[in-house]
Amino acid sequence: KIDMLFPVCLSFVLMVLVGVSARSASPSLVFPLQFSATVTITSHLIDESSEYPPKRRQMMIYYDYINKKARADIEAGYEAAKIYIRRYDEKKEYMVRLPPISDCKRSYLGEVMPFPDVEDAEYVDIDFVDGVECHHFIHEDHDTKVHMYMAVGDGSPVRLVQESATSEVEQSTEGDADIVYTPMLTYDYSEVTLEAPEDSW
């Protein structure tokens, strides 16, 4: 099977982005099942001066749950000039390397496209991210927190921040020990289109 980006990084992006279930919070969130967006991923553990691995990656994501397919075009950073495609409708997945390499690898895709759903996201408040008014939600899973910032105007994603618990502990004002969470990855979304991607792949 192709050693693909989708099962790791991209699957996380899509699952968090498309389906946050805030059952006990207000406002509730309803997400589109078809969209495209430019995503810039920043690793907080890599130095700004690092050439390899690069601190940032940029990709164009196309997601279409209705027609059971997803695609990521890596534009900059690690794995630049590669395209990953998952066609759940055809049970095939592809990795395309652009010129000068110019090749394509195909493998069988036996998985059913999962309906993205993250349960128990807690509503925090209204926050501003780069001047955009956002609903701020947090999802906790064991030693990981994901902060989700969704535009108030149209519900489009603006930013996701993944944090992990560290071994450090700080004392709260009440004297209790609090776990310290460290930012690991930030996903910034731009040029978001909340409609079906063009049907050319």
Task: List the keywords.
mainly beta, 6% helix, globular
**Which class best fits the helix and strand makeup?**
mainly beta
Strand order of the largest sheet: 6-5-4-3-2-1-11-10-9-8-7
Total number of beta strands: 11
Main sheet properties: 11 strands, antiparallel
Shape: globular
| pLDDT averaged residue by residue | 83
Distance between the termini: 20 Å
Proportion of residues in extended strands: over 45%
Return the string of H and E elements. HEEEEEEEEEEE
Spans of at least 5 consecutive residues with low confidence: 4-8, 15-25
> If you compute it from the alpha carbons, what radius of gyration comes out, rounded to the nearest whole angstrom?
18 Å
Q: Could you estimate the helical fraction of the residues in percent?
A: under 10%
Number of helices: 1
Any overview of this molecule?
The structure is a single chain. With 201 residues, this protein is mainly β. The chain is 6% helix and 51% strand. The protein contains one helix and eleven strands, in the order αβββββββββββ. The chain has one helix spanning 6-18; strands at 34-43, 56-64, 69-76, 82-87, 92-97, 103-108, 122-129, 132-141, 144-151, 157-171, 177-193. The protein has an eleven-stranded antiparallel β-sheet, with helices on one face. A hairpin with a 4-residue loop joins strand 4 (82-87) and strand 5. The protein is globular. Residues 4-8 and 15-25 have low confidence and may be disordered.
